Amino acid sequence: MSHPEATIPVPDLAHGSINKELLAEAQLGKWGDIRKQARAMAAKPELHKAEGATMAEQRARVFEQLGILVEAQSVHRAFPKQFGGEDNHGGNIAAFEELVIADPSLQIKAGVQWGLFGSAVLHLGTQSHHERWLPGIMSLEIPGAFAMTETGHGSDVASIATTATYDVDAQEFVINTPHRAAWKDYLGNAAIHGKAAVLFAQLITKGVNHGVHAFYIDIRDAEGNFLPGIGGEDDGLKGGLNGIDNGRLHFSNVRIPRDHLLNRYGSVDEDGTYSSPIESPGRRFFTMLGTLVQGRVSLDGAAVTASKMGLAIAITYANQRRQFNASSDTHEEVLMDYQRHQRRLIPRLAQAMAAGFAHEVLLEKFDEVFSGAHDTDEDRQDLETLAAALKPLSTWGALDILQECREACGGSGFLGENRMTSLRADLDVYVTFEGDNNVLLQLVAKRLLSDYAAEFRNLDAGVLARFMVRRAESLVINRSGLRQLGQTVIDSGSEKRSANFLKEERSQRELLTLRVQDMIANVADDMRAAAKLPQAEAAAVFNEHQDDLIAAARSHAELLQWEAFTKAISTIDDKTTRQVMTWLRDVFGLTVIEKNLSWYLMNGHLSMQRARTLTPYINRLLTRLRPHLQDIVDSWGFTDDHLRASIASGAEATRQDQAAEYARKMRASADAPIEEKVLLNRRRAERKASEKGTVKA
Amino acid sequence: MSHPEATIPVPDLAHGSINKELLAEAQLGKWGDIRKQARAMAAKPELHKAEGATMAEQRARVFEQLGILVEAQSVHRAFPKQFGGEDNHGGNIAAFEELVIADPSLQIKAGVQWGLFGSAVLHLGTQSHHERWLPGIMSLEIPGAFAMTETGHGSDVASIATTATYDVDAQEFVINTPHRAAWKDYLGNAAIHGKAAVLFAQLITKGVNHGVHAFYIDIRDAEGNFLPGIGGEDDGLKGGLNGIDNGRLHFSNVRIPRDHLLNRYGSVDEDGTYSSPIESPGRRFFTMLGTLVQGRVSLDGAAVTASKMGLAIAITYANQRRQFNASSDTHEEVLMDYQRHQRRLIPRLAQAMAAGFAHEVLLEKFDEVFSGAHDTDEDRQDLETLAAALKPLSTWGALDILQECREACGGSGFLGENRMTSLRADLDVYVTFEGDNNVLLQLVAKRLLSDYAAEFRNLDAGVLARFMVRRAESLVINRSGLRQLGQTVIDSGSEKRSANFLKEERSQRELLTLRVQDMIANVADDMRAAAKLPQAEAAAVFNEHQDDLIAAARSHAELLQWEAFTKAISTIDDKTTRQVMTWLRDVFGLTVIEKNLSWYLMNGHLSMQRARTLTPYINRLLTRLRPHLQDIVDSWGFTDDHLRASIASGAEATRQDQAAEYARKMRASADAPIEEKVLLNRRRAERKASEKGTVKA
């Protein structure tokens, strides 16, 4: 990307510059080559979002673009080799994420077709289903919807109300929508393009409800009309992603053959007998849903990419744009030199980097599980917890980052030509779909609670009692301030020693870890007491901790991001780059601690003195990082074809140069008007001089 | 608004219900009747935003809607009676703000025409200008632009580069755009509809630049073509407000008659002699800009209205929507009963109420100044500082509130039919236009600093020295923890006593005030030391405090909001309503303190014990407020025609009732399928029983 900085003083790089190539490699990760290929694809104008087009135009365009992806063989990596795929799960997601650069609607529409609809057939179906439907799904001959969510139930999938009742005489399932709340809703491809769907419904046979199962169902004929018994509605305009035709579906006595049940985890014999390789209905349900984790994984990655786009635009602009001239009579300040601007953008830059490195950890874990390399129940659970922890932070992060970037560019940030509002609008729904962020974090918290409980499960009562005493003692020590007193004594009034403590990797890790452990332990104590209460009262106790639990899960995710960032730095073989990245990692870790500073103080993990050092120390780190910012965002390798933002194209630098040149000429010119203020001062001085003269005379 | 709560248990109103009518009156304020009239107007479908229309369609529609407003005589209240107005400045803004309910584009386009373009002619021009142009401006015969901002200078208006040079021979001003950065930019009405403009340019006569002045200039002929020497560009698509045709303008030797200078604050004689009623160029500039404060005032009010719309939608939905059933086997929880949901929505409800009451204070102040009732220099300065403090908080608040409301409604919150994403997109630019929020808060901070300095200006050195010693002593006491120790002794381990302290009006006021005073005093100390440094170094010291200063200004604004809320409560003549509003005001004050809790701890204003009580106490307040939420949002008086959100129309309650009725019938039916899990448990129990039987036998 070109970013002429002609009028910007060369930054003082006391420690040299970072190595952009090495930094780029560290971020591209295991599937770097595939990512680069996908980036090249995303640069093609024919795949770009048509800003300002009507909903109908956007939908038509994106559907056509899906065809371009098929032609380019960009979207089949995850499918079996047998059908022309590559059995490459990690690489598939890596490529898929980059589509967000072209158009988030294209990313999500592709996700609906191949990541949800196609994946459900692949992972929930068996060989005959694959043979029958995967080729058509891959080629886009069968556009399909993923009909899980209902108007009445999104987060609580187990409670969906659509039924699939087995009719043993006809050997068919009869699909029914019992009431309005059970209409399928928000389904991509449902409003227009979908010819078929994977439908989730309560499977009922022989009078028993075996819970939610997936069925393959045709929904429209060749002319695009609903098949008999099927109806629907268009969800219409949305806050973004208007290239996708979301819609509603409902079913009245629609019959489908018995073998349309995607039966990897549950089958129904001709006589209606149900069988499953997984005995527990609960575990069976979670196993089925678990196959769909890739949606969360890919949203995590796409959110990071979108965040980086916003930051690349805003930081490039802030390095060229000038406004106000507090420090000089002739030169205006570059925005990036304002402390407030640094405070707005650099911690968010650190956050995007941390989220990016954490995403790579998630993607590798995902690939290990789905390739079968490490595919135990525990691996799958870990993967799901990791995805549930990271996706909320990166998607919320993207909205916050894109918004701050747009505001940091002032009015120009609001223009469509600078892209950020459009990206933000499209990314908005990422925080509530494929798992509502709050619900996901609550899942993570429950997992942390059960891990915490498991630690003690095998201990006898005596050990547990001793542990509880120790915990109580440590609480007393922390809250009495004795521990803080210790820190104060060690630092003995030295700000430098406090700062040294804060920049220690070990200190940051300890502080970030302590928060998760303590918060979970506190809730676990209260929940243990509530375990014997009646259901409603126990639920009330849990509810009283809901906000804390979600905060703990968020802290857990931040710790994971910090660890990933730290690990990634160690792989960079260049001293300056490692140093600069360590500063940035410190900004990440320390701003997370700063955000929760009152908690650290109240729980005795930080002394007042160390706490008071924190913010000034972060501010010093910001000024140290400031000269490296452009190099860091340039390491992401976005071209103008990716960013498509006029203020990041160098136009602002050109305008600043012209204005500076004009001002220089005016100052040098004899004809230039004099400022009234200057004239008044001069006259005042003359008057004084002449009065003096008069007095003297 | 209808909001059937059939399936919701009647809330436990131990203290009765609030009086909605009284609460409504307290919020409608001094211009309540005008507000109600404007609300009725905003309910008309012909004024509503055409969601999903193209930019061209929206622009045409909004322009037509301006005509409807003229016909209805809705927009002329601020103009002189002589021209058919009412000289009613406060009432005019009150009505104008409500237009946001119909369509934010309509509000802002009306604001451009009558609030900026028309106001500039009214307030910066003199009688002959009024007679010549106001009738055409009021009737929309002359649609006009407000040509102040340039691509290169938005926040720093004094540095705009367009010139108006007086040609004494022709008795004309010659308008020039010296370079690309000096193009006028982001101007509503500039892309298509504008026939004229009020143009801001550096006034140069007799070789002296007298600074920025306003000129009336025709820009297009009757056919809509640019006049000779004038050119422009369309700003194109924006992140929102696409009903407004923002654009760019540039000028090459465009000549306008001498009397097109709007000369209330500066005139040029035929011979080119400049004169002004205000001698200081700096004060003159700020006086001219000060006449335009109404833009900020009205954005503050519109942001409050939009926030309340979002909250009315989300809280109504959360009182009807159910998801998950932790506390019962048969009934799902109402969203509003989840702690996390309360935490997300109730503090924001409190914030919107506080911002609303504070807005009324601002509006009354505005009316006093503009009606001439209290119109000293100091009044004008106070008004500007108040507007600069409140507008950032309410506009940022609106974005945050609308976003949280949309997320709290899940996927349905993302649908266009539920309005929130559309409102948020349109409100987005409110945070950076009519004064960038960060720049405005910095202005407030500078005012606070100079007020602080003024307190000591007239004191002799001895008094000042004694004050500094006392300040230093108090810092030592606070930071050493001695003050906190005092609090701990008073509360002597009692959580209740800590909570009692927190809920005291006096405590909240003291804590909120202390923060502003302390932060400003700290910066003032450092700035005093820097006063003797060279310009660049002094600027650097200021820059090192920029983030703190902006934080202090924000705290100042929060204190103003808290005071306004407190004062408004005292006017409500109903005990229960006052009690409930006091809880809500406490939530507002205490969450502000909670947000800055680490600062209170580090600066010794709160003991650890009181701090630890804070969050649990807020959570208790939330559960107390929970039964009153629907009444509070209903007190705003929005009808379905205002909200236009299907999830707030009662549709969700109907769906929940249907689903509950279906579930009830199923439970009562003998044919209903049994759940596999229940069956397994039953079989297990039978097996155990039969094994027992076997053993016994």
Oligomer: homodimer
Largest interface, counted by CB within 8 Å of the partner chain's CB = A-B, 111 and 111 residues
Radius of gyration of chain A: 30 Å
Largest sheet of chain A: 6 strands, mixed
Question: Which spans of chain A have pLDDT < 50 for at least 5 consecutive residues?
Answer: 1-13
Number of helices of chain A: 26
Task: Provide a short characterization of the protein structure.
The structure is a homodimer of 697-residue chains. With 697 residues, the first copy, chain A, is α+β, with helices and mostly antiparallel strands.
Blueprint of the fold:
The structure is a homodimer of 697-residue chains.
Chain A: H1 20-28, H2 32-42, H3 55-71, H4 89-102, H5 104-124, H6 127-139, E1 144-147, E2 163-167, E3 172-176, E4 184-187, E5 196-205, E6 208-218, E7 230-234, E8 247-251, E9 254-257, E10 267-268, E11 274-275, H7 281-290, H8 294-318, H9 339-370, H10 377-408, H11 410-414, H12 420-427, H13 437-457, H14 461-480, H15 482-491, H16 495-503, H17 505-530, H18 535-544, H19 546-570, H20 575-595, H21 597-602, H22 608-625, H23 629-634, H24 640-643, H25 651-668, E12 674-675, H26 676-696
Helix pairs in contact in A: 2-4, 3-5, 4-5, 4-8, 4-9, 5-6, 8-9, 8-10, 8-12, 9-10, 9-19, 9-20, 9-22, 10-12, 10-13, 10-19, 13-17, 13-19, 16-22, 17-18, 17-19, 17-20, 19-20, 20-22
Family (chains A, B): Belongs to the acyl-CoA oxidase family.
Domain Acyl-CoA oxidase C-terminal (chains A, B): 510-648
Main location (chains A, B): other
Would you give an account of this structure?
2 copies of one chain form a homodimer. Chain A is α+β, with helices and mostly antiparallel strands. Among the domains of chain A are: 135 residues, Butyryl-CoA Dehydrogenase, subunit A, domain 2 (Beta Barrel); 166 residues, Butyryl-CoA Dehydrogenase, subunit A, domain 3 (Up-down Bundle); 46 residues, no CATH class. The first copy, chain A, is 59% helix and 8% strand. Chain A contains 26 helices and 12 strands. In chain A, strands 1, 2, 3, 5, 6 and 9 form a 6-stranded mixed sheet that branches. In chain A, strands 4-8-7 form a 3-stranded antiparallel sheet, with no helix packed on it. Chain A has a two-stranded antiparallel sheet with strand order 10-11. In chain A, a hairpin with a 5-residue loop joins strand 10 and strand 11. The first copy, chain A, is globular and about 120 Å long. The N terminus of chain A is likely disordered. At the A-B interface, strand 6, helix 9, helix 10, helix 11 and helix 12 of A face strand 6, helix 9, helix 10, helix 11 and helix 12 of B. Strand 12 of chain A pairs parallel with strand 6 of chain B, so a sheet runs across the interface.
